[in-house]
Amino acid sequence: MSTPRTMFEKIWEPHVIVREGDQVLLYVDRNFVHEGSFHAFGALAKEGLKVRRPRQTTAVADHYAPTLNRELGLAGVADSEARDMIELLEKNTAANGVEHFGLDHPRQGIVHVIGAELGLTQPGITITCGDSHTSTHGAVGAYAFGTGASQLKQILATQCIWQKRPKTLRIVVDGALRPGVSAKDVILAIIAKIGIGGATGHVIEYAGSAIRALSMDGRMTVCNMSIEAGARAGMIAPDDTTFEYLQGRPYSPKNGDWERALVWWRTLPTDDGAAFDREVRLEGSTLEPTITWGTIPEEAAPVSAPIPEPRAMSADKRAHAEQALSYMGLTAGMPITDIKIDRAFIGTCTNGRIEDLRAAAAVLKGRKVVVPAWVSPGSSQIKRDAEAEGLDRIFTDAGFEWRASSCSSCAAMNGDTVPAGMRCASSSNRNFEGRQGKGARTHLMSPAMVAAAAVTGRITDVRTLL
């Protein structure tokens, strides 16, 4: 009788080419690149090399793409450095025969959104990208992780990468989520529980009835923020929800290949009795809408709670919490719902998908924002889909700016910044000092919670507006 195996083991082992000590040479099935790949392409060209398997690399302009003036194409990129980066990606991909979804391409979008949207992201494969939030792709049951520039060069040249095998951590969330509680609340609650280093050196497999009940959009939100807990990757076992999502997408298997793929994909979930290095459990029915109050994702609390007192924390967390409260201009003990906001933003690879836009629109319909607010759909296709549903009109009628797909509002590029000292309700994934602009203060929350804050001017329990 064979030993029960985890999903991670079932993917990792067939991709190992050779072992040397505690390192293995791992085969990469799908590699994504964006504008930040210029170092790797430059190093490749310097050695007179080309991309070894160009059909297994996909490029997209997203990090330096502006959210405004996109109808002008490259001429609409006001920042000359950003414009050069976008042009350089086009040149590098053309020189190597790599498919490129550029600024004007109808399939352009944030790399961690379009992967699954196009069916390039599939169960059982290894996926890399020079971006930490590559863990997003694990939502379909893939092993997906970020790389550095030197590692990207190795992948482009060989379609392989040296890796140390990570440990495994299963996080089980059972119970039904209550109305108004979303995938974003689940992952923020997990990070608040285990900390930003709680999964360091591990691959997380998310399991339990609350996880299985999530849509693919929700699963991608959870896996996206695995990196904020220090994890190497996040994964969710493929099931009928996964297969229904992928069927018929442009790069998904077709006809007989689809049926053969399904047979294999159904073997991937973790076997009963398989051992994990660690396990953590949460009860989903007890979770509330969750918001960050500090400057790391673990500094988060339920909307009904007060801001915690640093003196009640362990010594290793106390100093950071005190510094965070000072930077954020907050006081321990004050209700989270007393926090006023100055800006509101919906988008990113965490929460820029169609389900996220629908959730926010449900809150905004018939209401008006009281602070400047904007939304940047996760891809050009999602933007078109939302417009076909009339979601754009709900956003604009409420006072939101309806913008194009890009990473810039998350990473403070192309002028998409929050002024110093101002507070932004954001559906993004990082809230460290200056993330959305020098001196900006970011509160992470779900898209519906962002919408609630935008129409009330303060952090508000969205459940009171539904």
Query: What structural class do the secondary elements suggest?
Result: alpha/beta
| CATH level 1 class label of the largest domain | Alpha Beta
Q: Averaging pLDDT over every residue, what do you get?
A: 97
CATH architecture of the largest domain: 2-Layer Sandwich
CATH H-level superfamily title of the largest domain: Aconitase, domain 3
Radius of gyration (CA) equals 21 Å
Q: Quote the distance from N terminus to C terminus.
A: 53 Å
User: What is the CATH topology of the largest domain?
Assistant: Aconitase, domain 3
The coarse overall form would be globular
Strand content: 15-25%
Into how many domains do the coordinates divide? 3
Helix fraction, binned, reads 25-40%
**Largest sheet descriptor:** 5 strands, parallel
How many E-type strands?
19
**Unreliable residue stretches:** none
Task: Note the total helix count.
Answer: 17
Sheet with most strands: strand arrangement: 5-4-3-6-7
Task: Note down, in words, how this protein is organized.
The chain contains 17 helices and 19 strands. With 466 residues, it is of the alpha/beta class. The longest helix has 17 residues, at 80-96. It is globular. The model has no long low-confidence stretch (mean pLDDT 97).
